[in-house]
């Protein structure tokens, strides 16, 4: 019964989160479907219905040959074209359009998402700038210093991975960690490119696998995959409040506690705060090699000129596309599981949390957070829709490309059944992910 009262008391904040998330989702979906709509009209294909949402219609109007609708479920949308999923023939049917016209229509949705992500990225980069992968500090006598690295150097490649912005390094380390003592990187100094290789300092010790703010509350800023706190479900933004019953007042208190009580193979109880609620988890520290880069790099942002805005807006979209593709590969390889996926419920909660964190900094920061989420989700939707999975745009493109190569279409009924089966599987996955999100919340 107490959980019901808790849900009711939080209905206001949750409703605000839901409305903000619906606004972001709606803009992304409308732009995606607008891509299909405009290219369909351009290629003489009739559009039966253009809708935002799924399920029963709430609002609907007909203009010309097209019905425009807003539906009950706020996630998703559609641009239903004449003869799209059957063998229907006619002057304005999908199948009557030229093959390359049909390919353009199907590809337009994801491509419009990338365009939208770029447009929003221009706002972000114009207002807050970009994050150059600049070396900020190299301790004297460190392996990196002895290899010749200096403050002010701009890193362009790290462990064989191209680096355009500092987050490229940050994401690589967060996803893969540092697995070798040997560090390889390329940097530019005074316009000249140089490469270095050095043996980093490392130490094996028991770890929980998290980073935290140097000042103020002991707020978690990073989590290492495969280490205890990440596996126990802690999240970035959680604040460590106690260890084995000893209160941890702030980051300085956490440092002093760990110095006085080094972690061992003994189980520890971690108390932490999330969304104003106290939680507790029991974990066993794990022996792990801690590798030090030997230098500090920039994680702030700096302004740039108009050409820089164009360049780094493109790089911003590229960053999110690459991160999405890399995460998918890790999912296929088993480094991520379906439990790591987030659906609409999880995204609503994440958007709401980021908006809550931005509120103290004013309306401008809240607006920028919403735009940032629109970039992330729009790039993500573009990539996901290009996957060669039946019912998605990528799956339809596979059939169209086969038709272009063969010079004739595959059996339309068979194609329709394949897409229907893919749609049902996607719906089943969505339901699973939704319940998984709800389980994580409670």
UniProtKB/TrEMBL annotation:
<feature type="transmembrane region" description="Helical">
    <location>
        <begin position="103"/>
        <end position="130"/>
    </location>
</feature>
<keyword id="KW-0812">Transmembrane</keyword>
<dbReference type="GO" id="GO:0006508">
    <property type="term" value="P:proteolysis"/>
</dbReference>
<keyword id="KW-0862">Zinc</keyword>
<dbReference type="InterPro" id="IPR004387">
    <property type="entry name" value="Pept_M50_Zn"/>
</dbReference>
<dbReference type="GO" id="GO:0004222">
    <property type="term" value="F:metalloendopeptidase activity"/>
</dbReference>
<keyword id="KW-0378">Hydrolase</keyword>
<protein>
    <recommendedName>
        <fullName>Zinc metalloprotease</fullName>
        <ecNumber>3.4.24.-</ecNumber>
    </recommendedName>
</protein>
<keyword id="KW-0482">Metalloprotease</keyword>
<keyword id="KW-1133">Transmembrane helix</keyword>
<comment type="similarity">
    <text>Belongs to the peptidase M50B family.</text>
</comment>
<feature type="domain" description="PDZ">
    <location>
        <begin position="195"/>
        <end position="248"/>
    </location>
</feature>
<dbReference type="InterPro" id="IPR008915">
    <property type="entry name" value="Peptidase_M50"/>
</dbReference>
<dbReference type="Pfam" id="PF02163">
    <property type="entry name" value="Peptidase_M50"/>
</dbReference>
<dbReference type="InterPro" id="IPR001478">
    <property type="entry name" value="PDZ"/>
</dbReference>
<dbReference type="GO" id="GO:0046872">
    <property type="term" value="F:metal ion binding"/>
</dbReference>
<feature type="transmembrane region" description="Helical">
    <location>
        <begin position="370"/>
        <end position="389"/>
    </location>
</feature>
<feature type="transmembrane region" description="Helical">
    <location>
        <begin position="12"/>
        <end position="31"/>
    </location>
</feature>
<dbReference type="InterPro" id="IPR041489">
    <property type="entry name" value="PDZ_6"/>
</dbReference>
<keyword id="KW-0472">Membrane</keyword>
<keyword id="KW-0645">Protease</keyword>
<dbReference type="InterPro" id="IPR036034">
    <property type="entry name" value="PDZ_sf"/>
</dbReference>
<keyword id="KW-0479">Metal-binding</keyword>
<dbReference type="Pfam" id="PF17820">
    <property type="entry name" value="PDZ_6"/>
</dbReference>
<feature type="transmembrane region" description="Helical">
    <location>
        <begin position="416"/>
        <end position="435"/>
    </location>
</feature>
<dbReference type="GO" id="GO:0016020">
    <property type="term" value="C:membrane"/>
</dbReference>
